[in-house]
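Researcher: Here's a chain I'd like modeled. Treat it as a single chain, no partners, no ligands.
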Amino acid sequence: MGAKEAAVILEVIGRLRARTSMSMIFVAHNYAHVLQLCDRVNLMEDGRIALDEPASQGLVEELMSRMTARVRRR
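Model: Modeled as a single isolated chain. Structure tokens:
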């Protein structure tokens, strides 16, 4: 998916979020998109939920730390 398509999808999800109270599951690898749209963040590692936290800018450091450690183990 290109940047234009991603922008359209993010816009649609943002509008749905603003207009409804429906729950959504948003799967992404881009932390900026996750923090922009989500109230809560779950990080999956080896098929298990390794992190379940409210979305916040401080969470970026935790996510980056976990991903860096995971890459080093490989």
